[in-house]
Amino acid sequence: MAGNEKDGYYCSICGGIPADKVGTKRIMIDGKETGIENLDFIIEQVQALHLAEDASITAEIVKRVKEFNYVPTKKEALYAEALLREYRDRTPR
After folding, report:
1. Domain for residue 7, yes or no?
2. DSSP string spanning 53-86?
């Protein structure tokens, strides 16, 4: 790893983001711990929309998660369920 706090950190070999600096959070999906890139950012953005219905919240989260992550079509419903649960855990009522 190269760089510093002022200029940012990067991999000295490939120039990419070092693994320990990646914003990947892990949640349980279908009984398996699964990494979701930018999950904190996504949840904050969806919270700012002040959506009330679970269906709307879930659709928005899944849409945004797909922008940064691969979501297998056959497991999309399982992802949606886990993402909504994570959203609810992080959102005050």
Report:
1. no
2. SHHHHHHHHHHHHHHHS---GGGHHHHHHHHHHH
Domain count, the chain: 1
pTM, rounded to two decimals: 0.76
Sequence-distant (6+) residues with CB within 8 A of 11 are 1, 2, 17, 18
The tokens of 29 are what? 């999906």
Q: Label residue 24 by pLDDT band (50, 70, 90).
A: confident
Tokens of 49: 């929309």
**71 within some domain:** yes
Predicted confidence (pLDDT) per residue in 32-83, tens digit? 999 999 999 999 999 999 999 999 999 999 999 999 999 999 999 999 999 9
CA distance 22 to 62: 20
